[in-house]
TrEMBL record:
Pathway(s): Protein modification; protein glycosylation
Catalytic reaction equation(s): L-threonyl-[protein] + UDP-N-acetyl-alpha-D-galactosamine = a 3-O-[N-acetyl-alpha-D-galactosaminyl]-L-threonyl-[protein] + UDP + H(+); L-seryl-[protein] + UDP-N-acetyl-alpha-D-galactosamine = a 3-O-[N-acetyl-alpha-D-galactosaminyl]-L-seryl-[protein] + UDP + H(+)
Species in which this protein is naturally found: Cyprinus carpio (Common carp)
SUPFAM superfamilies: Nucleotide-diphospho-sugar transferases, Ricin B-like lectins
Any one GO CC term of the record: Golgi membrane
Name recorded for this polypeptide: Polypeptide N-acetylgalactosaminyltransferase
PANTHER family found in the cross-reference section: N-ACETYLGALACTOSAMINYLTRANSFERASE, POLYPEPTIDE N-ACETYLGALACTOSAMINYLTRANSFERASE 2
Native organism taxonomy: Eukaryota, Metazoa, Chordata, Craniata, Vertebrata
Keyword Ribonucleoprotein: no
């Protein structure tokens, strides 16, 4: 078996072939089986391959502040293809000014092979933490954030490639205002051939009433307004997922992540609602570009499924009160006015039931707080809510209480 060399090496001196050789796709094996992307194509690439500079021309002449604080980069993974994970790490080190990356914290969420992460621990600045059981994305990210020693956190997925000067524009926005949570434009790494393709700069993150993330094309008006300054930050109702920069203290003040969320996915909605409703803002920074492998399917299983969502939201509701977070109605009117609120024909009525418990207003009609109560099938406090929102609750997306806090209010839109 391999021994883990403890001597630290520069990324340039890391033995890519030795690292990838152990998990290569063998002849006859399906290259998509393990990762739901083409691992053969991923493995062929050099760890520091060059990708096209997809930034707007204006970004190339821009001077970034030189007094920025360093960031801890937190990357969580579970059974990631070694080549994709290594390219993520190397692109961070290669494409960032060294003084702005204090460390890269890899959180291995109990991958089958502990050496996937452990072997990368010999690369300069890389620290590896391994969970001793599956924890899921949120608790893994929080573990990485808690271990971070820099004052700014940068979260990345484990199948990314950072582009030229990706980090400086993000850190600059956060340095100016720590309540900004900022993300790059996410370029597309093709899951079949691993070509790097620039994404449109005219998109914002949004969602539909099934609480599923989607990209919204800017309106003509919004695009016209940007013509004078095409690289200005873009306020976005939602971040796409795992790629963002946030002040560490602010992350903590705002309740980190919902530690009761077991699943992977849906966390971007939860943190997006929370940031906006509790006084912060979300931005896409056009001069920052990071490529990401978009897949059609999730490669991982979800241990625990969507079990404990309702039983566990009490502490989050208390936190919302403590932080003085605004209701969802405010978010709809001020952050996401483009979202069409479902009209009559979209709405079905009924109570939401989970086991013996039903979603219940517990009599709090005025502040819109909801909780769980034993089902009584008598209507009353067990409020009617939009069937589509209900579906998302059932599917285990744990972002719903940010929407449900105004389930009653929403009813008034009818
Ligand atoms: Mn991803």
């Amino acid at each position: 078996s391999l021994t883990i060399p403890m001597a630290v090496v520069r990324w340039q001196d890391f033995d890519q072939d030795l690292y990838l050789g152990a998990t290569a796709v063998r002849p006859g094996q399906d290259p998509y089986a393990r990762n739901k992307f083409n691992q053969v194509e991923s493995d062929k690439l050099r760890m520091d391959r060059s990708v096209p500079d997809t930034r707007h021309d204006h970004c190339r002449h821009k001077q970034w502040r030189t007094d920025l604080s360093a960031s801890s980069v937190v990357i969580t993974f579970h059974n990631e293809a070694r080549s994709a994970l290594l390219r993520t790490v190397v692109s961070v080190l290669k494409k960032s000014p060294p003084h702005l990356v204090k460390e890269i914290i890899l959180v291995d969420d109990y991958s089958d092979n502990p050496e996937d992460g452990a072997l990368l621990g010999k690369i300069e600045k890389v620290r590896v933490l391994r969970n001793d059981r599956r924890e899921g994305l949120m608790r893994s990210r929080v573990r990485g954030a808690d271990a971070a020693t820099a004052s700014v956190l940068t979260f990345l997925d484990s199948h990314c490639e950072c582009n030229e000067h990706w980090l400086e524009p993000l850190l600059e926005r956060v340095a100016e205002d720590k309540t900004r949570v900022v993300s790059p434009i996410i370029d597309v790494i093709n899951m079949d051939n691993f070509q790097y393709v620039g994404a449109s700069a005219d998109l914002k993150g949004g969602f539909d009433w099934n609480l599923v993330f989607k990209w919204d094309y800017m309106t003509l008006e919004q695009r016209r307004a940007r013509q004078g300054n095409p690289i200005a930050p873009i306020k976005t109702p939602m971040i796409a997922g795992g790629l963002f920069v946030m002040d560490k203290n602010y992350f903590e003040e705002l309740g980190k992540y919902d530690m009761m969320m077991d699943v992977w996915g849906g966390e971007n909605l939860e943190i997006s609602f929370r940031v906006w409703q509790c006084g912060g803002s979300l931005e896409i920074i056009p001069c920052s570009r990071v490529g990401h492998v978009f897949r059609k399917q999730h490669p991982y299983t979800f241990p625990g499924g969507s079990g404990t969502v309702f039983a566990s939201i009490q502490s989050r509701l208390e936190m919302k009160k403590r932080l003085g977070c605004k209701p969802f109605k405010w978010y709809l009117e001020n952050v996401y006015p483009e979202l069409r609120v479902p009209d009559h024909q979209d709405i079905a009525f009924g109570a939401l039931q989970q086991g013996q418990n039903c979603l219940d207003t517990l009599g709090h009609f005025a502040d819109g707080v909801v909780g769980v109560y034993e089902c009584h099938n008598a209507g009353g406090n067990q409020v009617p809510i939009q069937s589509k929102v209900l579906n998302s609750l059932m599917s285990g997306v744990a972002a719903e209480h940010w929407v449900m806090d105004s389930a009653v209010t929403l009813g008034q839109f009818k």
